Amino acid sequence: xxxxxxxxxxxxxxxxxxxxxxxxxxxxxxxxxxxxxxxxxxxxxxxxxxxxxxxxxxxxxxxxxxxxxxxxxxxxxxxxxxxxxxxxxxxxxxxxxxxxxxxxxxxxxxxx
Amino acid sequence: xxxxxxxxxxxxxxxxxxxxxxxxxxxxxxxxxxxxxxxxxxxxxxxxxxxxxxxxxxxxxxxxxxxxxxxxxxxxxxxxxxxxxxxxxxxxxxxxxxxxxxxxxxxxxxxxxxxxxxxxxxxxxxxxxxxxxxxxxxxxxxxxxxxxxxxxxxxxxxxxxxxxxxxxxxxxxxxxxxxxxxxxxxxxxxxxxxxxxxxxxxxxxxxxxxxxxxxxxxxxxxxxxxxxxxxxxxxxxxxxxxxxxxxxxxxxxxxxxxxxxxxxxxxxxxxxxxxxxxxxxxxxxxxxxxxxxxxxxxxxxxxxxxxxxxxxxxxxxxxxxxxxxxxxxxxxxxxxxxxxxxxxxxxxxxxxxxxxxxxxxxxxxxxxxxxxxxxxxxxxxxxxxxxxxxxxxxxxxxxxxxxxxxx
Lengths: 112, 407
Known about the structure:
The structure holds 2 protein chains of 2 kinds.
Chain A: E1 2-8, H1 13-22, E2 29-35, E3 42-46, E4 49-53, E5 56-65, H2 70-81, E6 89-95
Antiparallel strand pairs in A: 1-5, 1-6, 2-5, 3-4
Chain B: H1 4-29, H2 37-45, H3 47-64, E1 67-68, E2 72-73, H4 97-115, H5 125-148, H6 153-156, H7 165-183, H8 199-218, H9 226-254, H10 259-273, H11 282-306, H12 314-332, H13 350-381, H14 388-393, H15 395-400
Antiparallel strand pairs in B: 1-2
Helix pairs in contact in B: 1-2, 1-4, 1-8, 3-4, 3-5, 4-5, 4-7, 5-7, 5-13, 7-12, 7-13, 8-9, 8-10, 9-10, 9-11, 10-11, 10-12, 11-12, 12-13
C-alpha cells in the first residue's frame, strides 16, 4: 500500500476529486495548507506599504491506495491538476505499513 | 428660549457623534491582526466610560465653565452643578444647557480614542487608561477652552475652528506623534508584515464614522439652521472628494485602487473639512477634500521612510487633516457663506490666515509638549509596552483574557 500526498492549487480540487472518483477512488483526506516553491509568494499593498506574502494557499490531498494503483492515480491527479503554469503543485508517494478501519478492525487493503 | 427644532437636532447630533466612537473602534479593529482586535476595539470603546466620568466631574467645567484668564474654565460646574435644562446664555442659547454639555461630551470621548491608533498592538491597558485620562484633563480641556470656551484666549484672538480641526484632530495627531516617539515600534517592525485582518470591518467603521460626522460637523452649528445645512453639505463633499482623490493616487502609484485606500481617503476628507465645514462654500469643500486626499496619501507614504511606527496613521490622516483643514479655512472662509464668520485669504483677508497659522502653532506645540511629558512620565513609572512574548500572544489574550475568533 502507498500513500499519495498531492499538493495542488485550491481551484483544481473539484476537478481532481471528480477525476479520482471516475477511476474508482472512494476516499481521500483534504487539508488547507500554505506553502511556496518556485512560484514564490505575492505582494499585497496596504496604504502604500508593500507586504510580501511568502506562503500561498494550497490544498493537500492524502489518498491511500494499493501499490498497483499508484501510477494510475498519479497520472489522473497530474492531468486534472495541470494548468501548465508554475505553482501547480507536487505529488509525493510513500509506503504505508498498515491500515485499520476503526469500526470493524479490518486491516490492510480490506480497510482502504 | 428653548427652540424645539434646535434641541431635537442637537440631541440627535449628540447620538450621531457617540456612534463615531464604536465606529472608530471597528475602523481601527479591522486594520490590526486578529490577535489584537478586541484590545484595539476596547481602547476606543472604554473611552465612553472613562472620559464621560471625567467630563461630568472635571472636563465640562474646565472646558466651558466660567473663564479664568482665558486659559481654563473654573470648577464651579463640578459634577454638572448648575448645568440644567435651562439654556446657557454663553453657549447654544436655544437649547437646554445639559444638551450642549452632552453633545460636547461626545467630542471629548472620541479624541483620546483617536490617539490609540498610533500605538496599536503594543501597549498595556492600565497605562493607556492613565494616559488617556490625564491627556483629556491637561490637553483636551484647556485647548477646548482656548478655542470654544467663552473668553478663551485663542477664540478672542480670532482663531476659528468650526467642529474640531484644532481641538480634536490636531491635538490627537500631535499626541499620536509623541506617543510613537516615546513608546517605539511594534516587535519586528520593518521585518514582519502587519497586515489588516478584516477590511470589511474597517469599511463598516468608515461608514459609521461618515454617518456620525454629519452630527459632528452639522451639529456644531448648535442650531438647526442654514449654517448647519452648509456644514452638512460641506462634510459630505469633503469626504467624497477625499475618497476619490486617495483612490486615484492609489491606482496611479500602485496599479490598483484599494478599499483601504478609499476608506482612508474618506476619513482624511472628513477630518480636513471639520474646521471649515460651517464657513466655506460647496466648491471650496470639494477642493479641500481633494487636497486632503492628496496630502494625507503622500504623508502616509512618507511615514514608511521616517521609520515611525504610527500603526494606523493617526498623524498622517487626523493630525495632518486637522492642520491643513485649519489652513484651508484661512484661505477659503467666506462671510457670504457664514456672516458670523470671517473672510479668508481669497476674499482679501490675509490676516485671518496668519491668525489660523498662529492657532496651529500654539495648539500643536502645547499639545505635543504636554503629551510627550505625560507619555515619558507614565512610561518611566508604569511602562507602556508589552514584552516581545506578550506581543506575539496578542493584546486580546494577554490584556483581556479572551480571543475574538474561536472555531
